[in-house]
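It would be a great kindness if you could assist me with a short task in structural biology. Thank you for your consideration; the sequence and its tokens are set out here.
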Amino acid sequence: MAFMAKRILLFLAINFLVVMTISFVLNVLNVRPYLNAHGLDYQSLMIFCLIWGMGGAFISLALSRVMAKWLMGVEIIDPNTHDAEKQRLLKTVYALATQAGLKVMPQVGIFNSFEVNAFATGPTKKRALVAVSSGLLQKMGQKELEGVLGHEITHITNGDMVTMTLLQGIVNAFVMFLARILAYIVSGMGKRQQGSNSISMSYILLVYVFEILFMILGSILLAWFSRGKEFRADAGGAKLAGKEKMIAALEALQAQTQVDPRTEKPAYAAMKISSHKKRSPFLMLFATHPPLEERIKKLRLL
């Protein structure tokens, strides 16, 4: 119950922050209502959708480390810790990060989960977080651990968090823009007599319908890009830790079947090293990770 209450509180707080911030920006830019007595103002609509679409995505990115620590209960490891296992984890991350050319070491944390997994997040390369599950530390050896961490470090050096945020923001903006234009046309509002600025219920309903349809198409695009970045992170992990270690890590993940529902949330699912879910060919269109066997096969060809 406490965990659920924490999630609800954080969700409300973030949404309040997003609404207030974007409303402030719209007021500063003097963006007028895009629906007025003269019809649809395309310039105002474009600015409105761009600010809402990109604004929400980037605020979430800016808070990603805080959200991960709070929602996942990530315990940040003190670099001066005397715990042998934590020191091993720190040294492995720092060695791989240095090898990858990171000038600022990422924060390293552990979250309590029986699932064997890890994720990377953070708004910039200098403010990144690498977190591994307690289950991973218990069930993986040093060789597999290095492969996993090499993969996560590559996500950071490739700037995947920022790239995914940009893409999500662009998709959001297009979804909002196209949905409102089509709803305006289909609802017949554009044919009404000028001077009436009332918004019909059919227009509002059509906006929701078109947003759902376009968001489904946008999700397919985002998932396709996410699968590509996983292949690139695998290749980067193989370069940092060694191909055999990266393959060993994926094979170890392949043997695991337990899934922690907390880590399946969209905010973290796309940044994890793998998803254990079995999907039909259709649902694979929405998968953020390629099948592990496909990733292993591709690594063997490097």
